[in-house]
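Human:
Care to share another protein and its fold?

Assistant:
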Amino acid sequence: MSDGLGRLFQSKITNNTAAHRPKLVENVMKGERLVQVERLTRSYGGIRAVDEISFTLRKGQVLGFLGLNGAGKSTTMRMLAGVLAPDAGRIAINGADLLDQPRQAKQSIGYLPEQPPLYRELTVDEQLRYSARLHGLDHATCRQALLQTKERCGLADVGRRLIGNLSKGYRQRVGLAQALLHDPPVLVLDEPTVGLDPFQLREMRGLIRTLGRDRGVILSTHLLPEVQATCTHVQIIRAGRLVYAGALADLERQRCSTHLRVGLNAPPPAVNLAQLPGVVQVEELGVGRFRLHHAPDAALHQAVLERACADGWDLWEITPEHAGLEQIFVDLTLGDAPI
């Protein structure tokens, strides 16, 4: 990050001088907690695009940053990469404060924006050599970095081709190679698979998973399959605020069931089922089967068992239905309240 941009950061953040704020980076362990974000905020005019977001990223994690278009994902990615100044908040990258130590922090980041910054009139090798010089790599290190990065990103056979003649998928690969040249511990990827065909999409996902094994990756997307196929952790943003953050595997387990499917050989009228405590809707599925929509905290399972036994409903099925990731995403991004 340039000194000019560092001064811009300083001017944007008010009442947040080094003398008055706690040292966030003292709690950052290099090699383990790679990114620590605290109360990150950014507004455009009277609209708060990012509203006091806080999270951490550890080595070995691929963090999916998920939300609808306009939710604040790209704004957050740009602040993490140091190309956009926040109004308030703290960012530490691999132990370096992005405001107080911008050059050191930036050396630990590889950033791939949604539109990779490429010169179409250059060849792939020329573009990567130019990027390596910008990162300050000497001749010997640059040569080795180009060989390794091209091999890793599947560019070994296209080094002499003009970037303007490459497919969308290959241009994305060149953009990712630029972000990897200086071997950063943190990758920030903003919509890296937009516009790729199914084969390119599969290859890019595999590459991101591989890169995430020995570094931390933040992947911004609005595509649910992207998160499921690539990420170990997920955070969901709605209107600039985080409404969920945790391991992907925990997301569905932590989401309470609000549907109970029952099967009855001697079913009562649906109105009787609607009178059970906590039931908000009864959906008839046919042949004595019903889906009971209920409040998250309702003890409906026990109530159904008791009434079925007392009234002779001849219960043969009782199954809680848990929402899938798609339904959870809809609830969190469009619903009235977060988890």
